[in-house]
TrEMBL record:
Superkingdom assignment: Eukaryota
InterPro entries assigned: DnaJ, DnaJ_C, DnaJ_domain, DnaJ_domain_CS, DNJA1/2-like, HSP40/DnaJ_pept-bd, HSP_DnaJ_Cys-rich_dom, HSP_DnaJ_Cys-rich_dom_sf
Signal peptide: 1-18
Protein name: DnaJ-domain-containing protein
Biological source species: Hebeloma cylindrosporum
HAMAP family: DnaJ
Positions of the J domain: 20-84
Gene Ontology terms, MF aspect: ATP binding; Hsp70 protein binding; unfolded protein binding; zinc ion binding
Length: 367
């Protein structure tokens, strides 16, 4: 007889083996090879047991390697899509699966990246308002770039049947030429085929969509997510989003985020915020209560009861920038006071002020 506990264990085991490989990599079933690689790159780093000390990190890491190994192999992926995990097992016929750590080091260190040529990455300075960095924000932007022509998928030909093996080099891309170095004596050398430019193929009819250029201009839309407190100059990477070409894996689009310099307004240095406040002579002498509109639109009440000297800096704890990567920590706000004097004094003010500043003389006068 099977005990209930065993049934539960068996059921659980079935669930584990049936874990959807697409879910493991957090990609859609229609994900491209590029998406799968990007997902593996992100997740394998996140769960690598050298870095991630969570108790289940290693299991996740192994699962992720397995999912990548299957989904990055077109044959295995097809079998998995049609026949699931069972079909895969039959296909693999009890072969050992590769060590997940080898999968990792091959992906990052080894030949994988040498084989693939990377196109140029782009770096753009991206200015946002300080308020956006204070509160966090999502900013839509566009990039003009070149993408593979979707009509010919980067071949440049009107159809696959318009791509022919080059007759000049029989598809080798190079020609052997005989050169006479002495009468009756020849040397053979290899030169790039001039008919196909070394590609080994010639196109009879160009793709009408891209005129054979293989790529077309495109305006792509993205969203830049600004985390509150993002440091000045922080680089946000959009992996593989630079110009496409059939000759390379696209490079990255990198945005370097900075706050706009706005004159006379808020300034920031790391987690500290600076604000310049102008007050009148009356406020400087007698104190005041004032609202300063903070970067998030909030009224921040500042109170001074004592005399405020020009240039005095008031520190308001915890009203600076949020610190990047920590939800609760915040820097301080430094308010620097500038005192303005009246341009002119009316005779009445003059009399009153002199009375105020020379109390002993004025009282004597009145007596
Ligand atoms: C400051 O703002 C608060 C509300 O935002 C308001 O209740 C208060 O009266 C204001 N104080 C001054 C001195 O303006
Ligand atoms: Zn050729
Ligand atoms: Zn085309």
């Amino acid at each position: 007889m099977i005990s209930p506990a065993l049934v539960v264990v068996l059921f659980f085991a079935l669930l584990v083996t049936a874990a959807d490989l697409y879910k493991v990599l957090d990609v859609h079933k229609s994900a491209s090879d590029k998406d799968i690689r990007a997902a593996y790159k992100r997740l394998s780093k996140k769960y690598h047991p050298d870095k991630n000390k969570a108790p289940d990190a290693e299991d996740r890491f192994v699962e992720i390697a397995r999912a990548y190994e299957v989904l990055s192999d077109p044959t295995k992926r097809q079998i998995y899509d049609r026949h699931g995990e069972e079909g895969l097992k039959q296909h693999e016929g009890g072969q050992n699966q590769p060590n997940p750590f080898d999968v990792f080091s091959n992906f990052f260190g080894g030949h994988h990246q040498q084989q693939v040529r990377r196109g140029p990455s782009s770096l753009t300075e991206f200015e946002v308002s300080l308020a956006d960095i204070y509160q966090g924000s999502s900013i839509d932007f566009m990039i003009k770039k070149r993408i593979l022509c979707d009509h010919c998928r980067g071949s440049g030909a009107a159809s696959d049947s318009d791509i022919h093996t080059c007759g000049g080099c029989n598809g080798n891309g190079v020609k052997l030429v005989k050169q006479q170095i002495f009468p009756g004596m020849f040397a053979q050398s290899q030169v790039t085929c001039n008919e196909c430019g070394g590609r080994g193929t010639v196109i009879k009819k160009m793709c009408p969509h891209c005129q054979g250029n293989k790529v077309v201009d495109h305006t792509a839309h993205y969203t830049l997510d600004i985390t509150p407190g993002m440091p000045e100059g922080h680089e946000v990477v959009f992996e593989g989003e630079a110009d496409e070409s059939p000759d390379w894996e696209p490079g990255d689009v990198v945005l370097r985020v900075r706050s706009k310099k706005e004159k006379g307004a808020w300034r920031r240095k790391e987690t500290s915020l600076y604000w310049k406040q102008t007050i009148g002579i009356d406020e400087a002498l007698m104190g005041f209560e004032k609202n300063i509109t903070h970067l998030d639109g909030r009224n921040l009440l500042v109170v001074r009861k004592a005399v405020t000297q020009p240039g005095f800096v008031q520190v308001v704890k915890g009203e600076g920038m949020p610190s990047f990567g920590s939800k609760s920590a915040r820097g301080d706000l430094f308010i620097e006071y500038n005192v303005v004097l009246p341009v002119e004094l009316t005779p009445d003010m003059r009399r009153k002020l002199s009375a105020a500043f020379e109390p002993s003389t004025s009282t004597r006068d009145e007596l």
